[in-house]
Design goal:
The chain is an alpha+beta fold. The chain has helices at residues 31-51, 53-56, 78-84, 86-94, and strands spanning 2-6, 9-11, 17-19, 65-72, 107-114, 122-127. The protein has one domain (2-127): 60s Ribosomal Protein L30, Chain: A (2-Layer Sandwich). Helix 1 crosses helix 4 (86-94). It is globular.
Length: 128
Amino acid sequence: MIKLQLNQVCIGVRNYKCLRVPDSPNKKMHWATKHKWTKAWQEAVGWAVIKNRQKLGKLPLCKPQICVLLRLCKLRDKDNLYASVKAVVDGLTIAGVIEDDSPKYIDLDVKQEKVAHRKDEYVEIIIK
């Protein structure tokens, strides 16, 4: 079992903005800003995979069980929960951990836990 923890993802140069968890797909934003956030989450997953490369073994993994745990202040309903981790799962595909994000190649489970403060929010990826 490997745990990858993503504490914070940031974009921008002058207007530096950071998020601790991916946005809900219902949040309205310009398409270019949404693209920047998606790329930032994918890159953060890639760096977490590189840091833990020795623990992962031979890649791509064959039908791994992947649990994405979001620790949030405000809980989301199930369909928004799965949609909000799309960039994280795509990051695993780009990093070569999984071959594809279809149910044929992975067993995906997304969970959430309520935390008291925004500073306690983060994303944890558990790969079995």
